[in-house]
Amino acid sequence: MSKGELSRVEVLARVRSGQLRVVDAAVLMRVSYRQAKRLWKRYRREGAAGLKHRNSGRASNRAYAESFRCTVLRLVGEKYGGAVGARFGPTLAAEHLTSEDGIRVSGETLRRWMLAEGLWSRERIHGTHQDRLVKKLRRKQIRSHAEANRYLEADYLEEHNGRFARVAARREDYHRRAPGKAALDRIFRLESERVISEDWVVRYENRFFQLEAQSRNYAPARSKVVVWERPEGQLGIEYRGRAARWREIPAPARPVAQQHKAVTARKAGQKKWVPPRNHPWREAARRQMARKARKQTEATQRRSWDLSSAAP
Asked: What percent of the chain stands above pLDDT 90?
């Protein structure tokens, strides 16, 4: 039974138990009141089996004869079957049944039969031709490029275009014009963004390029440029969409670390030098401490003045 028929059994069971009226059951089953009364009558007489569709299990009046079905499946298995990748799909098999065996059967009908018999699984190969050309070549026992080209020109292309070609709704050509060589050169290249150093040098892939001074398209230091490279190895540098002049230079020498003055170590037993009391370092410290003490004294006096003025 279908899901809808099982739902009707549940609703009419509630009518039998007294939970629902027939008119309410009609609303739940989404049928008219007269149809609900007929279903209720069949349910009381035959039970749940009475709600099953009368044509369930019967063969269709338009169904093919069983002998015809067996003949078709035998031909498919013998002529158009085989291993995965070599076997014909339902659509292609239906075409060859018509052209080679004179048997007409729709692709969808053959699909259901082949699925039920295990002669085909849902294999999808994307593309307009899919794998039909390969299977046709194998069917014709074509094993060389010359034979394949002759078959394409004489038979396949005409048949394929006759089956899949469609007349355009309008005669206008809406395809975009093919880009020119300059546009293609800008498309098929790698681009990387680099920052100009303070001495107008651009580093790219461990190579160094010195930008040359120019009146137009001036690229200041610390600004960004685009370094592009084509598949054949040609390089270029652009600043704000315009080409910049440059020349490759050798890698600059690494800066030598500044030699710090060596500090002579104190001899063993030598005392640490302590500046005398009248040394300028000590004098500066004494002045800073005196200034700090003076500020504290002034702040204390201001607070005392504020308290005396505030007294009654």
From this structure: 28
Kind and range of the H or E run holding 199: none
- 187: CB partners within 8 A, 6+ apart: 179
Tokens at residue 285, please? 């410290």
Question: What is the reported pTM?
Answer: 0.36
Among 103, 92, 180, 76, smallest CA distance to 134 is for: 92
| Each residue's pLDDT tens digit, 85-141 | 677 888 888 988 998 899 999 989 998 888 888 777 665 544 545 577 888 888 888
State both tokens at 260: 């710090």
Question: Which residue is listed with tokens 């849902």?
Answer: 122
Cα diameter, the chain:
129
- Check whether 144 has a pLDDT greater than 50: yes
For residue 84, what is the enclosing H or E element?
Answer: none
The percent of the chain in helix, strand and coil, each rounded to the nearest 5, is 45, 10, 45
208 alpha carbon, distance to own chain's centre: 37
Tokens matching residue 159 = 């048949």
Are the beta carbons of 135 and 125 closer than 8 angstroms? no
- Can you list the pairs that 236-244 forms with residues at least 24 positions away whose Cβ atoms lie under 8 Å? 237/202, 237/209, 237/211, 242/216, 242/217, 243/217, 244/211, 244/214, 244/217, 244/219
CA distance 260 to 265: 15
